Amino acid sequence: MNLPLSPDLSRPPRYTGLATAMHWLLAMAILGLFGVGLYMTDLPFSPTRLKLYNWHKWAGIVFLALTVLRLLWRLTHRPPALPQSVTLAMPGWQMQAYHATHHLMYALFFVVPLLGWAYSSAAGYPIVLFGAIPLPDFVGPDKALAELIKPWHGWAAWTLIGLAVLHIAAALKHHWIDRDGLMLRMLPQR
Description:
- By secondary structure, the protein is mainly alpha-helical.
- It has one domain: Fumarate Reductase Cytochrome B subunit (Up-down Bundle).
- It contains five helices and two strands, in the order H-H-H-H-E-E-H.
- A two-stranded antiparallel sheet has the order 1-2.
- A hairpin with a 3-residue loop joins strand 1 (128-129) and strand 2 (133-134).
- Helix 2 (47-76) crosses helix 4 (92-122) and helix 4 (92-122) packs antiparallel against helix 5.
- The chain is elongated and about 55 Å long.
């Protein structure tokens, strides 16, 4: 679908192919991890619940590793600047929300899996990645600490999902209402 764009937006500056791929891969991972996390917590103790918990931990560690790679890429490859027509049209509070949302999401990309790893370690359930690679405990076994960490993992995950919803809503607003071509910067090229 071709949206009418102002002349300076006919070819909006785009993210690199790798940055785009990592964005969408991590976006799908966040949704999958969150969905499985919600589902598994209500299951009765069973082999299915144990499998899902292990999968959730493995996926969380892989997500953390991909986040490190994404951050390294971002630090060494400057993202494209926002088009001037977009920055001039955005009220100051929107620009602040844009930056705050991105910074908080990046922080939570680390905080959520690290809290999960710390909880699992404190609860005495080590992570064995893919059932073959034992990871070191993030903290020592401590049931009281585990009970303190567990809700923080959940709150951080809910906060991340809330920010992701806000991010998606803003992207859709720019695409469908403002029609400013901003979302095209992160869509795969055709």
